[in-house]
C-alpha cells in the first residue's frame, strides 16, 4: 500500500485503518507460523537424522544403498515437510482464532 494515499471521507479513513489492522494481523499470524515451522523442522531433523545415520551404518541393505546424498535427502525431506505442515496449521489456527474477535479487541 502506498504511503501517499489520503483518505477523503471518514468512511475511507475507517476502511484504510481496518485494512492496516488486517495487514498487521496477517503479518503476526504468518510470523507465528514461521517460528512454529522452524521449531518443528529442527525437531524433525534431529528425530530423522539419528535413525537414518544409525541404520546406514548398521543395516547391510542401508549400508549398500544409502549413500550420503540419499541420507541427506531423507533428512531434508522430512524437515521440509514438517516445516510446511506445522507452519500451515499454525497460520490457519491463528487466523481462525482471530476471526472471532471483534475489531475493537484486536491489537495491531
From TrEMBL:
Q: Where are the transmembrane segments?
A: 34-56, 68-87
Q: Which Pfam families match?
A: ENOD93
Keyword Transmembrane among record annotations: yes
What InterPro entries does its record include?
A: Enod93
What keywords were assigned to this record?
A: Membrane, Transmembrane, Transmembrane helix
**PANTHER family, per the entry:** EARLY NODULIN-93
Q: What is this protein called?
A: Early nodulin-93-like
To which species is this protein native?
Dovyalis caffra
